[in-house]
């Protein structure tokens, strides 16, 4: 994309791989031009741009570390110049360190909070300046955020996503008068989760008896895009995980 567009524009962070890539493709199919924000997956970002272009939609990849507020500000200045608008921001970055809190290094803590929480705020700050009435922010959380509980494994991730839920609701309340909605989608155990239990044990953790698919998450995102009277909500898409 090289010129200001009148078509809706979606910005997806962590967009080159895994869930982010799937969401970029599904949003392009919905009619969005897509800005793929990624940190290091150059080849994946390039092939994703090509895949979206093959569908007739426009796509552009922007390499930026969302934990760097100056880099994020520059990226959104570039989006303002090139696309001229942001109709949808999906904050999909989710650094996850499945280790015990008793072994959690302060540098790892800082990196997780910076990417998952501060980085999401930096992107919201940049996107909201370019977002018209009817715009939407969807933050990707984690299942079980509605009930504060001890989580000794991946504590930094849990804290970052709990903070993201608070941010989601604050922005939803603040920007509702401008007809901008802010919601959260919280996956549970997905089929590509790094700590997914084996198939014969999944029902011990997930009452519905299977891991989630990327399509399950995309379906929830599209539901929220269509649900114009829903804001400030967290939608667990987890098959009952952590009920």
Assigned CATH superfamily:
NAD(P)-binding Rossmann-like Domain
CATH architectural arrangement: 3-Layer(aba) Sandwich
CATH hierarchy class name: Alpha Beta
The CATH topology comes to: Rossmann fold
Number of strands: 7
The residue fraction in helices comes out at 40-55%
**Global outline:** globular
Residue share in β-strands: 5-15%
Strand order of the largest sheet: 3-2-1-4-5-6-7
Radius of gyration: 17 Å
**How many separate structural domains?**
1
Q: Secondary-structure element order, as H and E?
A: EHEHEHEHEHEHHE
| Through-space gap between termini | 43 Å
Given the helix and strand composition, which structural class is it?
Answer: alpha/beta
Task: Furnish the topology, listing elements before pairings.
Elements: E1 9-13, H1 18-30, E2 33-38, H2 42-54, E3 59-63, H3 69-82, E4 88-91, H4 106-128, E5 136-140, H5 155-175, E6 181-187, H6 202-205, H7 214-226, E7 234-237
Parallel strand pairs: 1-2, 1-4, 2-3, 4-5, 5-6, 6-7
Describe the structure using short key phrases.
single chain, 243 residues, alpha/beta, Rossmann fold, 7-stranded parallel beta sheet, 15% strand
Summarize the structure.
The protein has 243 residues and is α/β, with parallel strands linked by helices. The chain is 42% helix and 15% strand.
